[in-house]
Amino acid sequence: MSKASRDADFLPGTLEMLVLxxxxxxxxxxxxxxQHIQQVSNDALKxxxxxxxxxxxxxxxxxxxxxxxxxxxxxxxxxxxRITAAGRKQLVEEKRSFDFLLAGIARVMEx
Amino acid sequence: MRLSSRxxxxxxxxxxxxxxxxxxxxxxxxxxxxxxxxxxxxxFGSEALALEQSREAWGFAWLDSFAQxxxxxxxxxxxxxxxxxxxxxxxxxxxxxxxxxFTVFNTYVFRTIAVSDPHNxxxxxxESRDGTWRATWAQFQELRRENNVLTDVAAYDRLYAAxxxxxxxxxxxxxxxFALLAPGAHLGRLIQPxxxxxxxxxxxxxxxxxxxxxxxxGRKLRLRGRTLEVIxxxxxxxxxxADVVREFWVKGPPPASAxxxxxxxxxxxxxxxxxxxxxxxxxxxxxxAETSGLPAARRAAxxxxxxxxxxxxxxxxxxxxxxxLFAAFGLVLAIACANVSNMMLxxxxxxxxxxxxxxxxxxxxxxxVRQLLTESLLLAFPAAAAGIAISSGTLRFxxxxxxxxxxxxxxxxxxxxxxxxxxxxxxxxLLAAVCAALLFGxxxxxxxxxxxxxxxxxxxxxxxxxxxxxxxxxxAGQVAVCALLLICSAVALRSQRRVSNQDIRIRxxxxxxxxxxxxxxxxxxxxxxxxxxxxAVAAVWRAPVEGxxxxxxxxxxxxxxxxxxxxxxxxxxxxxxxxxxxxxxxLFTAGEAKAGDGVxxxxxxxxxxxxxxxxxxxxxxxxxxxxxxDGRSDRLPPYGAARVIGVVGDVISGFAGVGVDASCLYxxxxxxxxxETLLVSAARGKSAGRRDIQAAFxxxxxxxxxxxxxxxxxxxxxxxxxRIAFWIAGFLGGLAILLTVSGxxxxxxYLVSQRTKEIGIRMALGAGGGAVVxxxxxxxxxxxxxxxATGAALALLAAPLFAxxxxxxxxxxxxxxxxxxxxxxxxxxxxxxRPAQRAVAVxxxxxxxxx
Lengths: 111, 851
Known about the structure:
The complex is a heterodimer. By secondary structure, chain A is α+β, with helices and mostly antiparallel strands. Chain A has a single domain, classed as Winged helix-like DNA-binding domain superfamily/Winged helix DNA-binding domain (Arc Repressor Mutant, subunit A, Orthogonal Bundle), CATH 1.10.10. In chain A, 59% of the residues lie in helices and 14% in strands. In chain A, strands 1-3-2 form a 3-stranded antiparallel β-sheet. The two termini of chain A are 27 Å apart. Mean pLDDT of chain A is 84; it is low at 1-6. Chain B is of the alpha+beta class. Chain B has 5 domains: 2-58; 62-111 and 321-465, no CATH class; 118-309, no CATH class; 468-502 and 717-851, no CATH class; 518-703, no CATH class. Chain B is globular, with a radius of gyration of 37 Å. Chain A binds chain B through residues 3, 29-31, 34-35, 38, 43, 46-51, 53-54, 56-58, 60-63, 69, 76-79, and chain B through 1-2, 5-6, 9, 19-20, 22-24, 26-31, 34, 40, 42-47, 49-51, 53-58.
């Protein structure tokens, strides 16, 4: 169970938010996204492919991101994801509700 | 947006799968490289699971299984083409007749008339205490100027007249009629307010009667002695706004004459924001002011406003009136569904093994039911296509039959708007097909998938399967509906025979009813009498056998209360001309008729009713008030009481469906008086007689005759609806019995094959062939008697709807019930014969050996 706490999807929908946030800094491929989340979170959040790719499909389905094949700097083929305008709007939305939730949790924990 | 991107992705599924697999492979490579340079790796999940979950995000599972279901159903259908064809044929037949009915309904009730903005078009009239009134031309002009609820009002009236010597239906219209409707012209232009002697033809008339002559414009046509110039041909599809197709339009009003001003129908378009109710009250205010000078009973009390967007306005009342018809047609479809349901149940039994194996392998019941329903739907769609084809064939045949059997003098009058299969009909048939598929597919699907895992695992697939009760129920239901429909057709047949065989007791051959554009005057009548080939001429207010007698409230002397009596105005020649015998007293003289004396001749039945056992001669009949219950009564005797001077024989001069006139008062009038119809008897029979009359009028006053209708054909026309009713009922009944017989046959054959072993044992133990036949037949007869009794009970329940409608229709006719029951019993016996034979032919030895 200790692994679950490190999984980025510990709250439903959080992973999508993290992916969108990552992509808002520029297009990236799946591995790059996972790597970024892990590094920025100081290894606190590790995103496995079992949850990353379904999350990316959900984002594609809702047209929050778009995808196309391109070459990486190491000349390797990879599928790059790019955030769409709808995705940015969604990110703002999710950030707000997440902040609200977090503040709520904090208040409960400090009381 | 989501659905479309989902669908796009599903169509390019192979690409999607390849991309995803490639992506995950690259991901792993990157991960591998990263670890190689010392990075800390992440959790590696199952690749298949990642793929599966990614796929699920798109919701492909549902679509995939749907495609699977279709493939599965298609395979099932392909292995049993005979079964599939039978289902498609049976359901197609049921759908076809319902599509036929709906197509006709759609043409009159849903399809809007071919004018611009039909939904804003309303017709209105008003009602007073003593009848229904329409405006005169003068009132119409007034209303045009003085109303604030309608943007404009147009007037029209029907006109049946000879156009270039050919009987035709048209309209006289106000100058703004076409401006208000704006139907568009195919050739030339339409009538405008300052036009005078012009005529516009309908597209169909132009094509059928004038050979689509491109130079028709400017041609002169004769109508009622006037010469009119063709100025245009209306756009195809526009046939006037009534339910009867119009062929031409001329400018009204007719030149002023001494006759009472002809009434018109009013059409208006509502001002923006005005509801029909507001418009109705607006028109009422105007009509009340307009009629304020009249006696109280004739002042406008209520206005009617009716949408003219479609030939017949859609209303709950109209639907209720048609409900029995829809129910009868729907029931035939229900029988067809029951048949197919039964076939599917039998087939499902053969599939029991397959289903059981699938259940034990973990198939969910909903999925199985969905699969079986997909199969039903797959069969229902071709059935819908067959139904549409059948309906257009039926309509063509029906029209042909109608024109073949109509009395020849009226063929010109019967015209239909083009009856087409449009999107509404297709949508209706598709919807009905889906409903039918659910109806015939759901029960077998539920029944089949009710699998018992334990038995199935034991390898026992055939025992403990009890759809037989369900099947019996279906067969009994079929028989019940079939009995109901057969009883209906027997009742219709008997009433048709009753009506067409009854003696109407008046002479009809060689007698003609003349419709004239204006009264010929006494001198004209005298000249007609003297013409060659003319035997006699009589005048009558309402021609005989044209419909129910108009009723009048009277008080016979000696009675206290008012009674309603049928009445008419006739000239003395009426009785000898129609060969109505004078039983007592005398007829009135021409002098009495002209002087307006208060005398009356009554029918024998009237005399017996008012003064039973007394001498009616010299009695008087008071006509107490001017208030009349009958909306059609717009003419009353000008005196308060009339003395009975003669009694004549009973005849049928009203509607043939109600039989001999229950009461009839003949008030005097004379030939040549205004507003009378002329009856003429000709010496040389029907076709020569018509020519003689036409020739006589060509000399007296050309263009005066609108129509010359033989009385026998008028009578035939009046009872024609009974024939149609019988045809429709007979057709439905025939279909029902066909379906039921095939249903019984199928079920019994199936039961016999299922009981082969049992029958074999019975025969091995010494049962004779007779006993086996009895067993099979009695099983069938039990269902038939239950079904037949239910059907008869249903017919009795429905009977009050039709009782007291028309005397000729007797829904409690015992003969009809017995006949229908006999037919269905005989047919069922016939249907059970083959299965019974097969049961007798069972060879005990081989039956016991098999399985």
